Amino acid sequence: MEATRAGFELRRTPSSAAADWALSEGALQHRSKGFFSVNGVRDGDGEAVLLYQPQAAVTGLLTAELGGERLYLLQARAEPGCLGEVQFGPTVQSTPANFMRLHGGAPTPNIDAFIAYEADARPLQDTTQLDLGERYLFKSKRSLLVETAKPMPAAAPFVWTSAKALRQAAGRSAFLNLDLRSILSLAPWTEAELAPKRQSLRASLVTAPRPEVLGSLLAKIRRVQQPPSIVRLEHLKNWVADEWGWSERESQQGFRIGFFEVSAAHREVKRWVQPLVDSSSEGHVALACRDNRGVFEVLVCARRERGLATDIALAPTYVRYPGAPGALPAWLNGDAHVLSATVESDEGGRFYRDVSRYELVLVEEAPDGYADCVWLNVAELKLMLTTSNLCTIQLRAIVSQLLAL
After folding, report:
1. How confident is the model at residue 5, as a pLDDT?
2. Is 212 part of a structural domain of the chain?
3. Among 142, 176, 183, 181, CA closest to 159
4. Of 314, 350, 345, 319, whose CA–CA distance to 332 is shortest?
5. Which residues share a beta bridge with 285?
6. 290, exposed or middle or buried, with CB in 10 Å at 0-12, 13-18, 19+?
7. How far apart are alpha carbons 175 and 154 in whole angstroms?
8. What are 83-141's pLDDT values in tens digits?
9. End-to-end C-alpha distance for the chain, whole angstroms
10. How many separate domains does the chain show?
11. What is the pLDDT of residue 267?
């Protein structure tokens, strides 16, 4: 990790220094048109700014058995906006623009294990997953766990690690990035691999799913509004361009778009300038948990976010994005027992140290007013997680903490 941090620099820069980025067709875009763009949108809730990246990124984790032990190939990634600059991510975390080398950069290491039909590779998980619905417009990621029969030696910034080490790391702040946490939540939790240690969790993992419970939850996943329409940035009433990027006249979304110059010795491109979302305050994510007669359960809620392709998705009990107003409800605060808590940053490639606190909170029961929420055992939760385009990234990320209990 320290080797990856060496040679990494980040500094704020004025708009005039971002020669490759300009307002084009009403959106802030890279000259190649191959990266994300910053767009204005309008829906029934009004106007907003969202990032648009129609190509689904590939997030893939390689695994192998060596000497009878299950190992996973992680990558120490230096990202311009992540907390602590460097975090461990999956083996591959790449947009098509990167692995197709639209920017002229170096090849993406290990990408063929996830986008080619290699004889030595066997997919264990392959789903399409939703991304941040209040930051992206219709963005998804292809999430893969692939077993290789011929593991290659790991050279910096890659490292093979054990399931035991991953379980311990899942309880640490800003150590595993959200994409890696997401894949760990989707991965099989079995006795010999990523099985949780807590007895009530293990009992919950083998409890039979209840069709009526899952049916009632899936019935809540429906479109309630028309999808947002894209509007020109310069036509948004609350957003204005300035010397350093774009900002709100009055705080509503709670972030600005600023430009940053990045140097990173271990990336495909060594130096570049790009816009980043820069939020004004910390976010908060909480998942209510309970022990129901020896079976561990979590309270999952149907939540609408304007940028989700599905409009509504399954989310943790409470979600407040960085920059947004609000406070944790009293029943999840105060006397509630926090089982696990970490501080995480959103994807560092698009966000400047956007930080949220992620908490597993042990409660007796949820109060009235949570009609869109359902208590799930872990077997049911895993079924929901491994279904494409059903769960938010915050839910996938916080579930990974269960491994550390």
Report:
1. 56
2. yes
3. 176
4. 319
5. 319, 358
6. middle
7. 19
8. 888 899 999 998 776 766 565 667 788 888 899 888 899 999 999 999 999 999 999 99
9. 25
10. 1
11. 61
Determine the structural domain holding residue 289 and report its residue range. 199-225+281-404
- Give the amino acid at 390: L
User: Is 187 among the domain residues?
Assistant: no
- 382 within 8 A of 391, measured Cβ to Cβ: no
pLDDT for 100 equals 61
Per residue in 181-191, pLDDT (tens digit) is 999 999 999 87
Which residue stretches of the chain have pLDDT < 50?
A: none
Q: Which residues contact 241 (CB under 8 A, 6 or more apart)?
A: 15, 23, 233, 234
Asked whether 298 and 376 are in contact (CB, 8 A), the reply is yes
pLDDT in tens, 329-367: 999 997 789 999 999 999 878 999 999 999 999 999 999
Residue 340's CATH number: 3.90.79.40
CA distance 100 to 96: 6
**Farthest-apart Cα atoms in the chain, separation:** 62
What is the rounded distance in angstroms from the CA atom of residue 324 to the CA atom of residue 309? 21
* Domain-embedded: residue 192: no
* Dihedral sign of CA atoms 222, 224, 229, 233 in order: negative
- The whole-angstrom separation of Cα 135 and Cα 117 is 33
Give the C-alpha separation, 233 to 27, whole Å: 6
In a domain, 399, yes or no: yes
Distance of CA 239 to the CA centre of its chain: 26
For residues 67-77, one letter each, b for 16 or more C-beta atoms within 10 angstroms of the residue's C-beta and e for the rest, the string is eeebbbbbbbb
C-alpha dist (Å) from residue 153 to 94, 106, 391: 21, 20, 34
| 380 SS3 class | helix
User: Residue 155 CB: number of other CB atoms within 10 A?
Assistant: 8
Task: Report the pLDDT value the prediction gives residue 79, as an integer from 0 to 100.
Answer: 81
Rounded to an integer, what distance in angstroms lies between the CA atom of residue 206 and that of residue 222?
29
Task: With H, G, I as helix, E, B as strand and everything else as coil, classify residue 112.
Answer: helix
CA nearest 59: which of 169, 152, 187? 187
Closest by CA to 52, choosing from 142, 143, 131, 129, is 131
Are the beta carbons of 345 and 83 closer than 8 angstroms?
Answer: yes
Sign of CA dihedral 210, 213, 216, 219: negative
Q: Which tokens sit at 336?
A: 């509630």
State the pLDDT at residue 272: 84
Scanning 152-210, the segments in alpha helix (DSSP H) are: 163-169, 178-186, 199-205
